[in-house]
Design brief:
By secondary structure, the chain is α+β, with helices and mostly antiparallel strands. It has 3 domains: about 5-80, Arc Repressor Mutant, subunit A, CATH 1.10.10.10; about 90-160, no CATH class; about 175-290, no CATH class. The chain is built from 11 helices and 12 strands. It has helices at about 5-10, 15-25, 30-40, 45-55, 80-90, 100-105, 160-170, 180-190, 195-205, 210-220, 230-240; strands at about 30, 60-65, 65-70, 95, 115-120, 125-130, 130-140, 145-150, 155-160, 245, 260, 265-270. Strands 4-5-7-6 form a 4-stranded mixed sheet. A hairpin with a 2-residue loop joins strand 6 (about 125-130) and strand 7. Helix 3 crosses helix 4 and helix 10 (about 210-220) runs antiparallel to helix 11 (about 230-240).
Length: about 290
């Protein structure tokens, strides 16, 4: 840390009290009221301390009256990906981070975008966190499950699990980079201790036959090793819908579309180029170190 950075991070007595309290307890978040209580001061006085700590790079506003602590070991400009995800998590009390955001966390995609996907049953406007845009995906209560707490470099956020991430990406490929990228996410996930019983249970819970057909067809296309019991359960869900499609609406037939698949009663309105290199991807030898 150079002299300029040291001066920008130097602290007054009250500021030191806040930083030391957070550092010693390992906490990463604090509220306005907690700062006032810690300093035995008024809220207005606490606001002055908070604003100074923000300017010096120790605190970052997460929501009204709530702040993230940037630990000293992370440096004065440590608004990295983990902090951005933690900040985005404060947008709604009921949420999870999903789609491309979850896929990137699990290493299921090599594409990194400046968009953070926050899934919530509430209807909220888009936000900006740092240099990232927060895309709000309003999800029906019937699909709002399949997530849990995950520690991302010291910050606890709600993140969809691998199975729900794959299903979500197939359900809405526009939030994962397109059908080709959704298939890549699925193929990579299926090679990494993918829980087929859990995935089948999720599809049963959602109860959407069209989604089950798309999931089943893609599983076959990528060459996933789907156990027969799970396949039977997914086929049972698929039977709830008539013929459906993967890709744009039937009013727009893609040139050289792959066409109709009788096993899943699915019209694949996708050109081979969009799925280039993905066929049989799940059967390929896992990369060393994959888990």
């Amino acid at each position: 840390m150079n002299n300029m950075e040291f001066r920008s991070r130097s602290l007054s007595g009250q500021e030191s009290k806040v930083v030391l309290a957070l550092s010693e307890t390992g906490r990463r978040e604090i509220t306005r009221a907690e700062v006032a209580s810690l300093l035995e001061s008024t809220l207005k006085a606490a606001d002055h301390v908070i604003e100074s700590l923000r300017q010096k790079g120790w605190l970052e506003r997460a929501a009204w009256g709530a702040y993230l602590f940037i630990p000293p070991e992370q440096g004065p400009e440590a608004l990295g990906n983990s902090n951005l995800l933690a900040l985005a998590s404060h947008i709604s009390k009921r949420y999870y981070l999903g789609f491309s955001t979850a896929a990137a966390h699990y290493g299921l995609t090599t594409q990194h975008r400046s968009v953070i996907y926050v899934v919530t049953p509430k209807r909220l406007r888009e936000r900006t966190v740092g240099e990232s845009r927060v895309q709000i995906v309003s999800q029906a209560e019937s699909k709002f499950f399949g997530f849990g707490e995950v520690d991302v470099l010291g910050y606890t956020v709600m993140l969809s699990d691998r199975e729900k991430t794959a299903i979500d990406c197939i359900d809405h490929p526009e939030f994962s980079g397109g059908i080709g990228e959704a298939a890549t996410v699925f193929a990579t996930a299926s090679r990494r201790r993918f829980d087929w019983d859990k995935a089948a249970g999720y599809l049963e819970r959602i109860g959407a036959g069209a989604l089950a057909r798309r999931f089943g067809w893609l599983a076959d296309y990528i060459g996933a090793d789907m156990p027969p019991p799970a396949r039977a359960r997914i086929l049972a869900v698929a039977a709830k819908s008539r013929n459906t499609r993967l890709g744009p609406s039937k009013e727009h037939i893609v040139p050289r579309a792959l066409g109709y698949d009788g096993s899943w009663r699915l019209f694949v309105n996708v050109a081979p180029e969009e799925l280039h290199g993905i066929a049989g991807m799940a059967r390929r030898t896992s990369i060393k170190g994959e888990s």
